[in-house]
Amino acid sequence: MAAALGKETRLDAARRILLDTLSLFPADRQVGLVAYGHRRKSDCRDIETLQNLGPVDIPGIRAALSSLRAKGKTPLSGALRHGAQLLPQGGGTIMLVSDGLETCQEDPCAVAAALRKANAALVINVVGFGLAKGEMKGLSCIAEQGGGRAIETSNANTLKQALETLTGPETTDGTVTDKSSAEPEQKPVDPPPVTPKPVLLRAMIGNNAVPGAILFTVVKAGGEIAYSGKGTEVTPSLVPGSYTVRLSSGNVLAEKALTVTGDVDEHHDIPLDASLVRLSLIVAKGLEIADTDIKGDPAWTLVPKDGQAPAVLDAVIAPETLLAPGRYEVLASIGEFRTSTTINAVAGKDVQGVADLKLGKITLEAGLPGVDAVIESGTGLSWTLASQAGLPDKTAEAMPRPTFLVPAGSYTARLAIAGAVMDMPVQAEAGATKVARLDLPSAELALEGSLGPGAPSFTDWRDATWTVKPVRLIGDAKAGAALEGKAEASPRLTLFPGEWDVTLISGQAQATRTLFLPPGAKMQERIELSAARLAISAAPDAGAPPPVNVLISIFAAQADGGFAEKPVVEVGTSRDYSLILPTGRYRIDAADEQGRKGTATVDLAQGQSFETGITLK
């Protein structure tokens, strides 16, 4: 559909003409829309319902069509089955528009016959659009088996005529070829040969049909492929004569010469020396992949041990395939985990194989000696789970109870907090969750700050910057700063007991307090500054042009009643300006780019929020 057709692509032409045709439908006519090969390359499952069956919805169909891009395979058989599932039990019409033949190793003609057999009220019409010479024969049999009509078109005009013809009253008079006055008359499509007869071919393991689809290839005596399709059994239409049937699935190959007689209900069984192998990947006994947070698709590798041909498995949790008899080593991996097992494929038997990762969970937690409760805040906690078998370390930061999924074995749990480190051995068991608790002599400290007594606590992280440093810790434990210049409204910390200096800086104000934290203490400390919040607004008189930039300079009062020469704050702003200052008297100078100036004097009290306006003149 991506090929050029004049000044547009086939897909663009089909999109435009389909919308023109649907616009002529009665509003209550039921229409659905299915697309294939439009999202992914080389994916025979790329089939999507764009519009469910319902009254004609031109805007909705236009929107769905606008996103289509010709990208992938041509799964005609799958698209026919998909479309048939959208129709009611009372039947309906499938209109298949395609610019190519089936590319997914199935027989769409056999699928059409099966769908028609399952629902006699189903009609399948086919429009071939821009096909190569001779390809229409491969589509005509779909309409023949589906009780409909087939029309070959080569340009936009003939496509429009075909759709208008086939969307009128339903008919079943076979294959026709359209004609267009704009182009030379098209040669009529040769009718399908009348001599081929359906022949049932079945793949058998012993006395039973194969349990899964395999590839059938029917080769004529001269080497030409007469049929290729997948299934547990297939029904190709063959003329009487000699053929070779080849079966393949996984590393299983079989070949049988047969003679087609053309008899009614003719069938042939092809024996297959194979075993159906079903594998599954589990975390541990009783624990599935879905029960964990393991991400990604599994990878499987089969290593034949008795000279068999190689085989490939699908990247799914529970693949199944037919395999030649013999022993195989099965290697499985998902994410960072690996495992292996051995299976023995026995001809005619179903074989189950389980690849067990043998993983277990280890949950780490920290507590204080003599205290049952665990620490619920992860602030400052740094965890490491080290394998004694040399596997990569697992780590977690700032989590109170991390859980690690690891192979069964011996590990060392390590907790580091404020420079101190504690270790503990722990064992992981497959399918089990082990909890390892590390006791540490710690205290919990919750901090909050305010402008002063009676003022509300800070809730904006921009108002508070904290530094928490050890002074002297119990047991002479060594630790670094718990916080250093951290902007946070109300930090919560887990600390070793002992003396700590807590410093709060807010704007130009700051305060430091020394706290003693007993072992196991849960303290809440409020640091009250001797400060106020000042909001400044500088503007000219009403009607004057507003400033683009205002330079604000703030000077602190001195003991002699004057003001310092150097400002404590000097900032340019185009808007109002707000800041926090220590209590006291201040002069505020403001000047804009036009040379207009103004000044104000304020007295700030503890905990106060003060607003002042300055007129620029």
List the helices and strands and how they pair.
Blueprint: E1 4-5, E2 8-9, H1 10-22, E3 30-36, E4 47-55, H2 58-66, H3 76-86, E5 92-98, H4 108-118, E6 122-129, H5 136-145, E7 149-153, H6 156-166, E8 174-177, E9 197-198, E10 200-205, E11 208-209, E12 214-220, E13 225-231, E14 233-234, E15 237-238, E16 241-249, E17 252-260, E18 267-271, E19 275-282, E20 299-304, E21 320-323, E22 326-334, E23 337-345, E24 350-356, E25 359-367, E26 381-387, E27 394-397, E28 403-407, E29 409-417, E30 420-428, E31 433-439, E32 443-450, E33 465-473, E34 483-487, E35 492-495, E36 498-506, E37 509-517, E38 522-528, E39 531-540, E40 550-556, E41 569-573, E42 577-582, E43 584-592, E44 597-604, E45 609-616
Parallel strand pairs: 5-6, 6-7, 7-8, 10-18, 19-24, 25-31, 32-38, 39-45
Antiparallel strand pairs: 1-2, 3-4, 9-15, 10-11, 10-14, 12-13, 12-16, 16-17, 19-21, 20-22, 22-23, 25-28, 26-27, 26-29, 29-30, 32-35, 33-34, 33-36, 36-37, 39-42, 40-41, 40-43, 43-44
Helix pairs in contact: 1-6, 3-4, 4-5
Q: Within the CATH hierarchy, at the fold level, what is the topology of the largest domain?
A: Rossmann fold
Total beta strands: 45
Strands side by side in the biggest sheet? 5-6-7-8
Report the radius of gyration as a whole number of Å: 40 Å
The CATH class of the largest domain turns out to be Alpha Beta
Enumerate the spans where pLDDT stays under 50 for 5 or more consecutive residues.
Answer: 169-187
